[in-house]
Design goal:
There is one protein chain. With 41 residues, the protein is mostly helical. It has one domain. 49% of the residues lie in helices and 0% in strands. The chain contains two helices and no strands. Helix 1 crosses helix 2. The termini are far apart.
């Protein structure tokens, strides 16, 4: 499964929990691998 997480999902997960929080928990538990792309210039 591929999950796209933007800053809105990150902030929502940190402050409110819910589904975004579960995504962050899965990442912390090693169930997801963080892949980062370079930003635009």
């Amino acid at each position: 499964m591929r999950v796209v997480v933007d800053t809105n999902v990150l902030m929502s997960g940190v402050f409110f929990g819910g589904v975004p929080g579960r995504i962050l928990e899965a990442w912390r538990d090693g169930k997801l691998t963080l892949v980062v792309s370079p930003g635009r210039t």
